[in-house]
Write a structure and sequence with these properties.
By secondary structure, the protein is an alpha/beta fold. The protein is 28% helix and 16% strand. The N terminus is likely disordered.
Length: 324
C-alpha cells in the first residue's frame, strides 16, 4: 500500500474518532491532482480579437509557465446567470497540469442555443491569437487537442457545440468534452422552461458527436435534474462515453477549492482532471478512472457515485461506461 494512502486512511480514522466524518472517497483519494507541475500565468491581453457580441470583457487565458511546444487547450464556460469567476478554480487547476485554458463570460445566457456562438467565438479567438506575431500564444496552440468544459446551461452548450458542424458548432474540431450537470429542462419553478428553456429548440440528441465525452450529473441537483445528463448520454452511440452521477452532490458544491461550494471539490476535480489528461493530453496512466474494474475506478471512483433515485422527472444510473 502506498505511503500517502496509509497516511490518508489514518487521517480519516482520526477524524472519525474525533467526531468529524471525512467526505466519502476523500480519505482514499491520492493528492496527485491538487497541484500540477506547472505554475500558471494569466496572459489575458486586452488587444485580443474577441467578439464582444458573445464575450463579456477580456477572458482569462491561463498558460502553464515553462511548458514547451504546442499546447493542448481547454475552453471553459460557466452556467446560466454566471461569470468566468465561477469556473476559475477549474481553469487554473487544469492549466497547472499543462493545458492552455481559455475561460470566458458569455453574453447571451438565456437558452442553450445561445451558447453555441460564444464557443465558436472562443475558438476563433484562439485561431487569431495563434496567428498574431505579438501574441503570447503565437504558434503555440495544438488544434488537434482542443477540449471543452461547461457547467449547467454551458454544459448543454458544449455538448451541442461538439455535435454540430460550423457555422452552428465545432464538430470535427473538438477532441473531448466534459459536461458538468448539463441543463435539459427542469421542474424547478424558479428555473422553468419559460425563463431558461430552449430545451425544445435543441433537444438532447448529440449522437453526431465523434469525440470522447464525459457527462457528470449531481445526484441531489435541484436545479438541473440528474436525469437530464443521462438523457444526453443515452443518445451517444459510437464514441467513448461515460456518465457519472456524483453521490450527494448538488448543482454548485464542487466548484471551489475552499469555502463556499467546496464540499465535493475533492470528488469532482480528480475526475475532471484525469479525463482531460487522458483524453486530451494522451496521458494513459489515468485511464482506469474510466474503466469498470480499473484500479482508480474501483479504489476511488465507484464509492462516490449513486443513481437510481427519482429526482424530478426520472431515474438514472450511478454510472455507465461505453467504449467506441
Amino acid at each position: 500500500m502506498r505511503h500517502n494512502t496509509i497516511v490518508a486512511l489514518l487521517l480519516g480514522t482520526l477524524l472519525t474518532l474525533g467526531g468529524l466524518t471525512p467526505l466519502y472517497g476523500q480519505e482514499l483519494q491520492e493528492n496527485w491532482w491538487r497541484t500540477g507541475k506547472y505554475t500558471i500565468e494569466d496572459i489575458a491581453d486586452p488587444v485580443y480579437s474577441l467578439d464582444e457580441e458573445y464575450m463579456s470583457n477580456t477572458p482569462n487565458l491561463y498558460m502553464p509557465v515553462g511548458k514547451q511546444g504546442k499546447l493542448p487547450v481547454v475552453i471553459v464556460i460557466h452556467g446560466w446567470s454566471g461569470t468566468k469567476e465561477q469556473m476559475q478554480p477549474t481553469a487554473k487547476l487544469l492549466a497547472s497540469h499543462g493545458m492552455l485554458v481559455l475561460n470566458y463570460t458569455a453574453v447571451d445566457q438565456n437558452q442553450p442555443f445561445q451558447w453555441l456562438d460564444g464557443l465558436i467565438a472562443a475558438y476563433t479567438l484562439l485561431e487569431g491569437e495563434n496567428r498574431r506575431p505579438g501574441s503570447k500564444i503565437y504558434d503555440r496552440v495544438d488544434f488537434e487537442k482542443i477540449g471543452l468544459i461547461g457547467h449547467s446551461m454551458g454544459a448543454a452548450g458544449v455538448l451541442h457545440s461538439a455535435a454540430m458542424e460550423k457555422p452552428n458548432g465545432l464538430r470535427g474540431k473538438i477532441k473531448t468534452v466534459v459536461s458538468m450537470m448539463p441543463y435539459h429542462g427542469t421542474t424547478d419553478p424558479i428555473i422553468s422552461d419559460p425563463v431558461a428553456g430552449g430545451k425544445d429548440k435543441l433537444g438532447c440528441d448529440i449522437s453526431a458527436t465523434p469525440n470522447a465525452t464525459l457527462i457528470i450529473s449531481a445526484e441531489q441537483d435541484p436545479t438541473n435534474e440528474p436525469i437530464g445528463g443521462y438523457e444526453f448520454y443515452q443518445t451517444l452511440k459510437t464514441n467513448k462515453r461515460v456518465f457519472f452521477s456524483l453521490k450527494g452532490t448538488h448543482h454548485t458544491d464542487w466548484m471551489n477549492e475552499s469555502g463556499r461550494d467546496s464540499k465535493y471539490y475533492p470528488v469532482a476535480m480528480p475526475v475532471i482532471t484525469a479525463w482531460m489528461l487522458t483524453h486530451l493530453c494522451g496521458e494513459t496512466q489515468y485511464e482506469s478512472y474510466f474503466k469498470e474494474g480499473g484500479h482508480y475506478f474501483e479504489t476511488w471512483v465507484r464509492q462516490t457515485l449513486k443513481g437510481n433515485v427519482k429526482v424530478g422527472r426520472g431515474k438514472f444510473p450511478a454510472f455507465e461506461i461505453k467504449e467506441p
